[in-house]
Amino acid sequence: MTINASSIFKDIEKIRTNAPLVHNITNYVVMNTTANALLAIGASPVMAHALPEVEEMAGIAGALVINIGTLSDDWIKAMFKAAKIAKSRQIPIVIDPVGVGATKYRTSTARQLIQESTPSIIRGNGSEIMALCKQDQKTKGVDSTSASDQAIDSAKSLAREFGSVVCITGETDYIVSQKNIIQVKNGHAMMPRVTGLGCTATALCGAFAAINPEVDKASAHAMAVMGIAGEMAAQTAQGPGTLQVNFIDALYKLSESNIKELFKV
Amino acid sequence: MTINASSIFKDIEKIRTNAPLVHNITNYVVMNTTANALLAIGASPVMAHALPEVEEMAGIAGALVINIGTLSDDWIKAMFKAAKIAKSRQIPIVIDPVGVGATKYRTSTARQLIQESTPSIIRGNGSEIMALCKQDQKTKGVDSTSASDQAIDSAKSLAREFGSVVCITGETDYIVSQKNIIQVKNGHAMMPRVTGLGCTATALCGAFAAINPEVDKASAHAMAVMGIAGEMAAQTAQGPGTLQVNFIDALYKLSESNIKELFKV
Amino acid sequence: MTINASSIFKDIEKIRTNAPLVHNITNYVVMNTTANALLAIGASPVMAHALPEVEEMAGIAGALVINIGTLSDDWIKAMFKAAKIAKSRQIPIVIDPVGVGATKYRTSTARQLIQESTPSIIRGNGSEIMALCKQDQKTKGVDSTSASDQAIDSAKSLAREFGSVVCITGETDYIVSQKNIIQVKNGHAMMPRVTGLGCTATALCGAFAAINPEVDKASAHAMAVMGIAGEMAAQTAQGPGTLQVNFIDALYKLSESNIKELFKV
Fold it and tell me: What domain range includes position A224?
């Protein structure tokens, strides 16, 4: 097996011990949630998007996470600038192409970012991953989760072209790299009803990749942790409000026995 | 009776089935909360404010919600651009004039937006609705909830001038249109202690108007759902923190029997 | 004793009665949390950052809180403009130099803001307070909490130079003014795992300073309230998710007997 409960927990322990600094240039909707998720798992988040400081911030970070959820021109400039530094320092770059396919602006920005930064990890739902490849693909907003299976071909082509690990999240998560495909089957049906859990998955990829140089395993560990924490959260949730709160608690409490009990491939 | 438990629940079912895409250009404080509320009720939220993409986003949305809570020049330009497309497509436009009256910038922006977009719905507290009409009206910050009764005259004049349905929220909500006034008496005294529940009411107006062309009823349904979910949330809340979380859960769980039991006019 | 349970509660009652308007120019990550904390304690928060309106907003506020957590050029201009008005009106200005020392941009912005506005209160963790004084000080991101003891010398020098009260938050909080040092020993070890509680402490300083002209006591009251609410929240928290929610509830419920029971100096 490529990943297992013990390899997942070893990475969590490394994050808790090393508290890697994860530099996020992300969207307004999820900043609080992703910062809290990174803190709960044991990482050290920083949000910084100003052109005059992104170079320096990416220069001290252990990973760079770029998320285009509420992009605008100034932020895009900062994304490219930070990515350049991160690339030169060979720290992992993770890109979340939120809503790509919904507007030309998102599609062209995401594609250029990927071309210039050749990210370690790209994470999106099936429609987003397909929209990165096909000129004529359309996504409906940012919450579409269908079609993750058909997205595997697109993921393979992105992995081949850019050397990236591509995470397609959905009922089953597919972590697609040039060498293999890892499947993770954790998660809960209520999770798509909480905004920003996809973005949180992306941020966790940054934390795991910051402490594990095997990018495909780091990504799969992050996806497994997302799903397991979601299942733990759902056990006592009354709806998406309590799910979101419990999810942060679960990331914080996550033990090796939780993972052994719940991890599904 | 203009609206009733059954008409409210029918709209909720339509939202849950159709998941209308609601395009929000809103403020930084409430983006997460309103996105979660829209997801919880069953709609599909998207937040997008960049000039190069708002036209396209408003072009695929079922409703456009504009909220001036943390406005700035670039965002205002995007608001006008999105409103123009939404108007040409005849999808509902909902405007929340947050804090209008507190600064000239807010007052003039809100008035111009209303004049140019002739929105389907304007939602605010009493002071805000009055400030839209009177040059010399002053609001204290963004949380003033007094004077909703006196605001009815202002609402009538806005309804007459722009053809809009005007929702004045407070202890009693007044949904004022050219033809009638609907009152909704749901809600809980702790709700004004949670930031952004007014903005959430506005966002829900967008979701309801996206699936119900009778704008006055759609607005009244949204107000009833806000109040009922607030009452359900308050039943086990220990303060505004748990109220906010429970409120999202309540929107998600809301059943016809909840509404039948709690709806008050 | 400089402050005690009764002096703390007297200030809370004043906030609940007067609902001072606190004008925040703060970061994207914490806007929702700090607005909710200010509402929960009884204050009236407003977030406004646009150059055309900050003068007017600072002109009606009872305190101005400036936080550089996600700063950019336009926001910096607004910070200086608002500070100028606040200074001329002699309302309290509170500055939170988030992440100062991590990038030159933050360091120079924070120092200039302090020099020009001579704030009533500066609040930061030990590393941040030291970075405000030393050219060669480095902070790791925004969550460093170490070294608060060694920061006292830096705080004294800032207090001397600008007449500010300097709050160093950590396991023990030190409220350093030209005349004395007040220590507050409340708080809970899980609090640094919630994003934005430092920023919330800063925002509460604004609320307390708005109703209490003795700035050192107002600051110490705010720190005590933070710590006590944190301890109350931790009693039933399952992790940082529930801690954040319970914390808001605790601010709302806080009674004189809670404070008498828990206040530690």
Answer: 5-262
Q: Which of C69, C105, C141 sits opposite A44 (nearest CB)?
A: C141
Q: Which of B28, B36, B53 sits opposite A240 (nearest CB)?
A: B36
Nearest by Cα to C35 from B70, A195, A36, B104: B70
**How far, in Å, CA of A15 to CA of A204, rounded?**
10
In the predicted model, residues of chain B with pLDDT beneath 70 are 1, 135-149
* Tokens standing for residue B128: 């805000």
Please enumerate in sequence order all residues whose Cβ is within 8 A of that of B214, keeping only pairs 6 or more positions apart, or say none: none
User: How far is residue A189 CA from its own chain's centroid?
Assistant: 19
- Best of C65, C246, C249 to disrupt the B interface by mutation (most B CBs within 10 Å)? C249
Please indicate if any CB of chain A lies within 8 Å of the CB of B33: no
Lookup result for tokens 């100096």:
C265
pLDDT at A148 (0 to 100): 61
Token pair in block for residue C97: 């130099």
Are residues C104 and A32, on separate chains, in Cβ contact within 8 Å? no
Q: Chains B, C: CB contacts under 8 A, how many? A: 101
Domain tally, chain C: 1
| Residue C25, token pair as written in the block | 């120019």
- What CATH number does the domain containing B173 carry? 3.40.1190.20
ipTM for the predicted complex comes to 0.94
Q: Which of A32, A49, A74 sits opposite C33 (nearest CB)?
A: A32
Strands C165-169, A121-125: pairing is unpaired
- Would an 8 Å CB–CB cutoff place A105 in contact with chain B? yes
Asked if residues A243 and A198 have their Cβ atoms less than 8 Å apart, the reply is no
CA distance C102 to C128: 9
- Inter-axis angle of helices A5-18 and A31-41, nearest 10: 100
CA–CA gap between residue B16 and residue B38 (Å, rounded): 10
Gap between the Cα atoms of C106 and C98, Å rounded:
8
Chain C closest-CA separation from residue A135 CA (Å): 33
Q: Nearest-5° angle of CA C216, CA C217, CA C218? A: 95
Check if A133 contacts C (Cβ < 8 Å): no
CA dist., res. B31 & res. B28, Å (int):
6
pLDDT in tens, chain C (265 residues): 689 999 999 999 999 999 999 999 999 999 999 999 999 999 999 999 999 999 999 999 999 999 999 999 999 999 999 999 999 999 999 999 999 999 999 999 999 999 999 999 999 999 999 999 975 444 555 555 445 667 999 999 999 999 999 999 999 999 999 999 999 999 999 999 999 999 999 999 999 999 999 999 999 999 999 999 999 999 999 999 999 999 999 999 999 999 999 998 8
What is the C-alpha to C-alpha distance for residues B63 and B89, in angstroms, rounded to an integer? 10
- pTM over the 0.90 mark: yes
pLDDT tens per residue across span C13-52: 999 999 999 999 999 999 999 999 999 999 999 999 999 9
B35 and A143 in contact by Cβ < 8 A?
no
Chain B from 108 to 127: CB within 8 A of any A CB: none
Q: Say how far apart CA C144 and CA C124 lie, in whole Å.
A: 10
The angle subtended at Cα B218 by Cα B215 and Cα B222, nearest 5°, is 140
Tell me the C-alpha distance between C38 and C93, whole Å. 16
Tokens of A128: 């987003």
Nearest by CB to residue A29, choosing from B35, B53, B245, is B35
Residue C27: list chain A partners with CB under 8 A: 47
Q: Three-state SS for C70?
A: coil
